[in-house]
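Lecture notes, unit on binding sites. The following record was shown on slide 14. It pairs a sequence with flavin-adenine dinucleotide.
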Amino acid sequence: MKTSDPIDVIILGGGLSGLMAAIRLIRQGKKVTVVDNSLPEAGGKLGGFAKFSGAKFSLPPAGMGLLTLAGTKERLHQKIDEVIEILGIGSLAKHSSFERGADEEIYLGLDTELRSYNSIVLSPPQIDDLLARLTTLISDSCQLIRGKAESISPNEQSWVVAVREIDSNLTLNFTAKTIFYAAGRLESKILTNAGAEEYPGKGLDVGFRVEFMQRESVGALRDLGPDAKIMHKSARTFCLNSPGEIFYYKYGNMDIPGGVVANDNVNTANVGILSRIKDKEKSGREIVDNYAKIRNLPKSGVQTGRPDLCADLPLSILLGEKITKELQEFTNILGDLHLINWDLPFRIHYPLIDWYWGTYCSGPSHKTSLRGIYALGDSAGHARGLLQAAISGWLASEEYLSEINH
Ligand SMILES: Cc1cc2nc3c(=O)[nH]c(=O)nc-3n(C[C@H](O)[C@H](O)[C@H](O)COP(=O)(O)OP(=O)(O)OC[C@H]3O[C@@H](n4cnc5c(N)ncnc54)[C@H](O)[C@@H]3O)c2cc1C
């Protein structure tokens, strides 16, 4: 595509949602521009969080929030198949026990349930390969801009997106009638500043990550499935999918031990312990403010025995007493149910905040409150996750295509 060609759709964000949307639109002969300000750790590569969040693709019953967009279960499954084929993970999906529609919760005792998902976990070379393939698929047929979208403003019937290009540091203006906003959780409020309405979405999960020096500490948990989630009231476990390196990212002034970059050579195992709070905007701000009071969070050393969250760490100052108590109760229950062996050495990394800000869709559509602007993936708010972002991008393109064809 030549830079002078008029753009049908400008896609802001080159994570899985933006990439899959681009592929779907290109197939239909649309002129697409993708703008991506890649994560600092990604070294300029596309893919957003795909490499830094465990490279784990969770199959149904994960992501049933997409059902409202797909319309029927049959169509959702058909879209999952299409997306899995493009991602090139079909053979791995066949090997996983992909039981469609299975939505089982198993009671484990002590007011605690097990929710199992079937997942495809890719190794670092596999996810690199997948992202390289997707990049090749789009780079010949669409304009790819490495840059940060800084503002969106109306211009007659179209939108103008100002993009600061990374290499030249120049600001370029792109005009299109349609914007796909796929900037995910690192978004910078440009859509809100353009006047789009934000919807509450789901809550904010906060807590801590435990790095176990020996994998057998969480052996009983992993025996329940590579992607088993344990739920107790508002608390849940998170990311026990694969051994890997903990990936820290910036959240305000904090370093968050959020993702896991899968790596089989790592001998430690880790699990997140989180509690979900409802008012994500207010709670997120409070945690950032509380952090400012503590300034330097003391690092936890290697320890054994059940952690005393109030005594060991300033968690109650950071997250508040109520949440810390819930996390403590859940920590104890995981020990009581023999799912985690707290007698073996571990180290706590905190604060773990699994957030997703700025969700712009409500109801069964990718449309935002602004005409011609769609939100996809994490920015849409229907469902969160890698496979879910990819499907959301695919479905958003189909929604747009069906709109312009009628
Ligand atoms: C710590 C952590 C752990 C996770 N664990 C899992 C897991 O185990 N399994 C799972 O399925 N999901 C997991 N997720 C969720 C999953 O990573 C996301 O749902 C998915 O990556 C969303 O894809 P996306 O395309 O919507 O956005 P992203 O992957 O966030 O991609 C957005 C892209 O847009 C770019 N961007 C942002 N702002 C701009 C701008 N202004 N201009 C241009 N580009 C911009 C970003 O840099 C990025 O490249 C995890 C997420 C996190 C943070």
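Take-home: The first strand starts at residue 7 and ends at 12.
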